[in-house]
Amino acid sequence: VLFRSVLEETDIYDDNDGFNGTTDFDFLSFNEHFESTMVGVGLRAGISARIADNIRFGISAETPTYYSIDEQYDTVLITEFDNGDSFAYGDDFDENELRDDFEYELKTPWRVSAGIGLESGPFSAMIDAEFVDWSNLEFDSPAFGFGPVNREIEQTLESATSYRAGASYRFGDAVVRAGFAHAPDQRDARFQSVERDRSLISAGFSYRINRQV
User: What does DSSP assign to residue 206?
Assistant: First the structure.
């Protein structure tokens, strides 16, 4: 992840000329740079089986993913004045107040999901659900104590089950489809000032003109 922000301000009309209580300000540049590198390792396994001629059922589990995250950021501030004076901070190696490199680890919760699909002639449908206990999310770092953060996660987050459903119907070379998904808020209801449940509805249409298009 890379983020860069540049803010520049110029006194193009010379409103700040050093008179009437103003300074002889001419130009300001504020540069922010943030870069995050993330490497994670996890394992997902599942199995599916046809339990009837037109019905298939499957389950899967995903182990916690262990992420190693390295975040680097720096800021450079430059101010110039009409008399030629120029002041800068952050462009020298010994100016570390606005520069840092922070490394930490993140462990995600277990995920368990199951789904079932139906196919009958031109009609097909599928529904699946995923269970995650978000209170098991955990941060760690050798240089910073994440104890209060992890305790807050354990107290304010809870388990949540999200689900998705979709169906399609084929009319010769044309197919219409629709879907619905719901993801509940992972926060404990006692700590919710705003409900953040999410529901999504989708629909689509496709037509095969020939084998190539």
Answer: E
Q: For residue 201, which of 183, 179, 184, 185 has the smallest C-alpha distance? A: 179
pTM above 0.85, yes or no: no
CA 43 to CA 208: how far, in whole Å? 37
3-56: per-residue pLDDT in tens?
A: 999 999 999 988 888 888 788 999 999 999 999 999 999 999 999 999 999 999
CA distance to 8, 112, 151, 172, per residue, from 29 (Å): 5, 50, 40, 62
| Tokens (6 digits) for 170 | 């084929």
130 beta partners: 113, 162
For range 62-72, the mean pLDDT = 96
Strands (E), the chain: 2-10, 25-41, 44-52, 55-62, 66-81, 86-89, 99-107, 111-120, 123-133, 138-140, 159-171, 174-183, 198-207
Helix (H) or strand (E) holding 150: helix 147-156
CA distances from 113 to 129, 132, 144, 151, 199 (A): 5, 9, 34, 27, 18
Tokens of 60: 């899967």
Yes or no: say if 139 and 157 are a contact pair by the CB < 8 Å rule. no
The rounded Cα 2 to chain-centroid distance in angstroms is 14
